[in-house]
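We were asked to recover a plausible sequence for a given structure. The inputs and outputs are reproduced exactly as logged, with field labels preserved.

PROBLEM: sequence recovery
POSITIONS: 76
GIVEN STRUCTURE:
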């Protein structure tokens, strides 16, 4: 139960601070979804594939050139 709460808090914190253009927050978001990918190894193949696809989409969106500019705009 504690881990689920911590993972939820990490997701919320990363979301809030990504909106404030903090670069570390996008790395926290990537760690959050990577954690889900690792956990999905213990579930069905479709669930693992879905989490893997979400991870790839997160990575593409969060590391596009425009996103890089956004996260460099105010602070690092």
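RECOVERED SEQUENCE:
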């Amino acid at each position: 139960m504690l881990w689920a709460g911590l993972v939820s808090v990490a997701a919320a914190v990363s979301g809030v601070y990504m909106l404030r253009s903090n670069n570390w927050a996008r790395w926290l978001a990537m760690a959050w979804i990577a954690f889900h990918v690792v956990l999905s190894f213990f579930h069905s193949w479709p669930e693992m594939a879905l989490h893997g696809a979400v991870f790839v989409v997160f990575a593409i969106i969060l590391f596009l050139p425009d996103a890089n500019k956004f996260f460099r705009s105010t602070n690092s």
